[in-house]
Amino acid sequence: MTRFLLLSALALTLAACDTGGGVGTDDVEARPALENVADNVITATYGDLAAEAADLVVAVNDLDADRSDARLALAQQAWRDARAPWELSEGFLFGPVDTEGLDPSLDSWPVNQTDLDAVLASGASLTPSYVAGLEATLRGFHTIEYLLFGEDGDKRAADFTDREVQYLASATAVLRDDAARLVTLWMPSGGNYAAEIKNAGLSGSLYVSQNAAVQELIGGLITITDEVGAGKLGGPYGDRSTAEEESRFSGNSIADFSNNIRSVQNVYLGAYDGRSGAGLTDLVSARDEALDARVQAEITAAINAIEAIPAPFSTAIFESRPTVQAAIDAVLALRATLEGPVTAALR
């Protein structure tokens, strides 16, 4: 996906700015922010993703046992509930989610509907292991979304074939397993990637300095603001087409986009779901209080502008174009601030 290329380029650029000698953020102790963000923002978000993905499996199995519109509605809501923490994690698409290929497995878009229809029409045994072995565009959030909501978002329980339900159950099981693996890779009892961030600059860490880890966090924020502003919002708006609109089957696009910017807010403030501590805000404000206030205001403005778009986004790109443009402008203004003065301040 294009965000991998962008993230890699950013990582190389930002790393080139870090001498490894502790210049920049190491002048102001960054470890409290790194420890808090690693544990109470990133790992905690992935923990919620794993829990919600497990609940989605239960809801789909209930739908399989009782193919009613009421059960379908519960499964659709379970999809939205699982989707939220994933979108809240997109401000930190580095580490195992990247190196282990979990991002494309969980969130490839668009759905390959032609190949999906071919698999459903085949005689293949639609087990979780079979689905896990298919290309990424045939599993993950959006394949599940397509099966649950239908092409036009109006699917009824009676519309399901037995093969669709079998595929849906297996795809949700794969999603659950991917999410569980992701949080485990960050936890002390598993891969403990959180320790790489928390111990930046110490012997054995992947990050040669605290500044290197801080730049990794900033790179993640720049990447997602670019993706939301130029891609998720800007692509369908510029093309005047819903073909590339993410989460259009469920009508969840606007929630996706706003949660992406909330992921920026969570890392910047060092806060998530009632947990709070040091964040990038502490490092920026120690150098430039006005810049810190500007960043916080631009984050809020971007979220508000996205949420001001009338739902559904599929209609807004045609009928409410000024509101979409305002959201694009707000998100890209935030990206420019992160990419320019914030990155410079924390070198």
TrEMBL record:
Keyword field contains Signal: yes
Source organism per UniProt: Rubricoccus marinus
Record's keyword annotation contains Signal: yes
Keywords, comma-separated and alphabetical: Signal
Subcellular location(s) per record: Cell envelope
Domain Imelysin-like: 42-336
Name assigned to this protein: Imelysin-like domain-containing protein
GO annotations of cellular component type: cell envelope
InterPro entries: Imelysin-like, Imelysin-like_IrpA, Imelysin_sf
